[in-house]
Amino acid sequence: MKNNIILIGCMGCGKSTVGQRLAKSLGYQFVDTDNLIVKKYGESIPSIFESKGEAYFRQLETDILQELNHSTNHTVIATGGGIPVKDQNQVLLRSLGHVFYLDTSLNVLLKRVQGDTGRPLLASGNQEEKLRKILEERTPKYISCAHTIIKTDDKSFYELVKEIEMGFLQH
Ligand code: S3P
Question: Ligand 1 in contact with 119 (CB < 6 A)?
Fold first, then answer.
């Protein structure tokens, strides 16, 4: 297995914040698949969804995972919340390194994403209903993809970083 840490979980679970702090603590690189897509294609995520559709965006995610699989090591990788839905991506994620699922309750997720306009799947309509449905549909996928599940509610970012570090180093 490659020596990377991969963070998966629903929008708002803290993948980017925890990932950056974790990378700093371990002396690892940090990448975020959404940022890699934005940089590579020069277009924001909402704009890609609008101009080319979700299926196109999902293919870009798989392409990025394949690229990471060729070259990446000693890196913390924060992933877009929808990546583990595809079985093909699950295989790619698990071959990239140790996959941690940040398991966060609907209420905490909702507080974090409220008012956010950068996530096309939650941009219109009833955010709570949409997020509940997404979480229900994806939870089995997150669980089957993860090597380790980390419950995040009521934990500080510092505590989460230490818990993931321990899980990774003891593995
Ligand atoms: C998505 C999550 C987003 C981003 C895109 C789609 C999803 O990333 O990839 O808006 O399907 O859950 P975050 O999980 O970092 O918000």
Answer: yes
| pTM of this prediction exceeds 0.90 | yes
* Chain segment 124-170, per-residue pLDDT in tens: 889 999 999 999 999 999 999 999 999 999 999 999 999 999 999 98
Distance from Cα 45 to the centre of ligand 1, integer Å: 9
Q: How far is the CA of 26 from the centre of ligand 1 (A)?
A: 25
Spatial separation of the C-alpha atoms in residues 64 and 66, rounded to whole Å? 5
